[in-house]
Amino acid sequence: MPTAIAPRHIDINLARLHQLGMVTQEGGRTTVAEDFRTIKRPLLRNARGDGDVPAIRHGNLIVVTSAVPGEGKTYCAVNLAMSIAMEMDITVLLVDADVARPSVLKVLGLPPEPGLMDILLRDKTSLADVILKTNVPTLSILPAGRANKHATELLASRSMSRLLTEIAERYADRIVIFDSPPLLMTTEASVLASQMGQVLLVVESERTTQHAVKEALRHIEQCPNVNLVYNKSTAFPGSEYYGYYD
């Protein structure tokens, strides 16, 4: 008789994240924490509905992406997940979907683990097998998993579509944050974004060209709910994040 596999548990070094200037539950009202409170609020309204305004379809699936590498999308995805995990009645699943260059566990100071690729490559690996529980009670992580030369193609596969549907419908009360590949690096990134309820496009201040932003937006023009975060701005001293555009 098959036995259930207990979820794996990992400890995130929250003191280390705080020293790096990232959002943590015990980090207080830092500038970054306040910025992500502003960023998350409309995303949560879309995901859960607000008064007479219903929730949007798959609004609990939020992909964080960028035009090109190096704009800070993983940093934003982790901070957004940590910020939403502070809500009283919400759980968060952070998915590393940048399978060619996974960075979520690296940012968190954790070693590689099985994850998304293992589900897509092996029928016997289930979502429950590879989700990592953390010492933040409301935050779980789905790592990218083992490297595979067909990783980007797998993101556009039917298996991925089925997995996204399962996550959206089975965990309707959970917010799922996906750290996606950059939009101008792979066509699969736009395919992944098209299956999300909401898209958060990270734009690096004084580095990302207007042409790159317009081209990235063209790749996700079929997505009805796209928001831009202007990252690494020096408009205000001490703030790495400034600007939220719906």
TrEMBL record:
Which family does the similarity line name?
Answer: Belongs to the CpsD/CapB family.
| Superkingdom, taxonomy of origin | Bacteria
Q: Entry's PANTHER family?
A: FERRIC ENTEROBACTIN TRANSPORT PROTEIN FEPE, TYROSINE-PROTEIN KINASE
Broadest EC class? transferase
Protein name (record): non-specific protein-tyrosine kinase
**Organism per entry:** Duganella alba
Assigned GO CC terms: plasma membrane
Q: Give any Pfam family that matches.
A: AAA_31
The catalysed reaction is: L-tyrosyl-[protein] + ATP = O-phospho-L-tyrosyl-[protein] + ADP + H(+)
Q: Which UniProt keywords apply?
A: ATP-binding, Kinase, Nucleotide-binding, Transferase, Tyrosine-protein kinase
**Coiled coil stretches, renumbered:** none
Source organism phylogeny: Bacteria, Pseudomonadati, Pseudomonadota, Betaproteobacteria, Burkholderiales
User: Which GO terms fall under molecular function for this chain's record?
Assistant: protein tyrosine kinase activity
What's its EC?
2.7.10.2
Q: Where does the record place the AAA domain?
A: 61-223
InterPro entries in the cross-refs: AAA_dom, Bact_polysacc_biosynth/exp, P-loop_NTPase, Wzc-like_C
